[in-house]
Design brief:
The protein has about 400 residues and is of the alpha/beta class.
């Protein structure tokens, strides 16, 4: 029996450049980073980031339940609501036993955990929040979405660091193929802009240090790239078997054609310098999709703007895709949204397929001379895109790649 096609029928995003999918797309295509100094990070070695603001999250969530939710949960819920509406679905009318929720995160509610630790230290145990546990555990985005959507099928919270979003989408695809659900809400969320995280990125050497305007510091694939800028956000997608989606009158945004995953087993932070293990994940996704490398019209790169990652990834892209498809790297605009990055970038790749547009890489005039890749710079590139891949390479050596096709 042939494997059923899996369609992405709904898309929801909330990011540093937009509180929904359309505004996020416009912001990424504009190619300007919103990175700025952030209140509460005074005195930190890194006091800037790309943050979600301009929205009252508690009011948007509504009701009394918001008090028990960390920001990472609220972001996921808003993205999920948009995705479900975009898919033309109504949770009041679906069979919740056939709906899965797979929402990953890298750090969960570590921000809230740190805040509660400070309260405990200064004021004692009696001052800590009765919701302290709910504010911190990483499964709560999936759990709270399931509660709101009355989804009683499988629910999971994958954690593969910066690859968590693509891992979640891969798990959702497998659940649909196996018949364990009919609808899957899948994606990832992250919000860890707080002093301990900033100190950690500074000490690890991965974070860009202040040198002028923060908006210009994240420069993926540039010769003078200086490290990542932290971001936050969420993206959730609705996945269905394509034939069933069409039967109910839904128009798929894209088909999830293939996925691939490997583990470097090399170093907790640095990628394997040869890139061969990450390359194996790309090649696995192509095999899963049934594509040749030359079938790929666009690459959405992980592109963290760190020295080692960009060198590894650029070499990988030039080896696997010698026909030089156009490459973008959204972290130049959005910052590195960590566990949410892969889900957000998958969503952007879906939009690139639909609209025939590749967004430019922010803060990049031309890739480093050592890199033989075709980076899109300055302006969006308009051309037909039939097939595309999006890379996610996480701390710990977690590599996850997704292959997407225009319906």
């Amino acid at each position: 029996m042939s494997r059923p096609d899996i369609a992405i029928t709904g898309l929801g995003m909330i990011t540093p450049v937009g509180n929904d999918t359309e505004s996020t797309w416009r912001g990424v295509c504009a190619g300007v980073s919103p990175a700025r100094t952030v209140a509460g990070l005074e005195g930190c070695a890194i006091d800037f980031a790309c943050v979600v603001d301009g929205i009252d999250l508690d009011a948007a969530i509504g009701g009394r339940a918001a008090f028990r939710m960390g920001k990472y949960v609220k972001l996921a819920i808003l993205a999920a609501r948009e995705a479900v509406a975009d898919a033309g679905l109504d949770p009041a009318r679906w069979d919740g036993t056939r709906v899965a929720v797979i929402v990953g995160t890298s750090s969960g509610g570590s921000t809230s955990l740190t805040e509660q630790a400070v309260v405990l230290d200064r004021l004692g145990a009696g001052a800590t929040s009765p919701s302290a546990i709910l504010l911190t555990i990483p499964n709560m985005p999936a759990a709270e979405i399931a509660i709101q959507m009355k989804a009683t099928g499988p629910s999971m919270a994958p954690c593969t660091a910066c690859s968590s979003g693509v891992t979640a989408l891969s798990v959702a695809r497998d659940l649909l193929v196996s018949g364990q659900c009919d609808i899957a809400l899948a994606g990832a969320t992250e919000s860890i802009v707080y002093p301990v995280a900033m100190a950690g990125f500074a000490r690890s050497g991965a974070g860009a240090q202040r040198d002028g305007d923060p908006a210009g510091l994240c420069r993926p694939f540039a010769a003078d790239r200086a490290g990542l800028v932290l971001g936050e956000g969420a993206a959730v997608m609705v996945l269905e078997r394509a034939d069933e989606a069409r039967t109910r009158g839904a128009a798929p945004r894209a088909l999830l054609a293939g996925t691939g995953a490997t583990t470097d087993a090399h170093h907790p932070i640095s990628p394997h310098p040869s890139g061969r293990i990450a390359q194996a994940a790309v090649e696995a996704a192509l095999r899963d999709a049934g594509w040749a490398a030359e079938d790929v019209d666009h690459v959405n790169a992980h592109g963290t703007a760190t020295t080692a990652n960009d060198a590894m990834e650029a070499a990988l892209i030039s080896r696997v895709f010698p026909h030089r498809p156009p490459v973008t790297a959204p972290k130049g605009v959005l910052g590195h949204c960590m566990g949410a990055a892969g889900a957000i970038e998958t969503g952007l790749t879906v939009l690139a397929l639909q609209r025939g547009v590749v967004p430019p890489i922010a803060n990049l005039d031309a890739p480093s001379p050592e890199f033989d890749i075709d980076c899109v710079v300055k302006q969006p590139l308009r051309q037909p895109i039939r097939r595309a891949v999006s890379h996610s390479f996480g701390f710990g050596g977690h590599n996850a790649v997704i292959a997407l096709q225009r319906p």
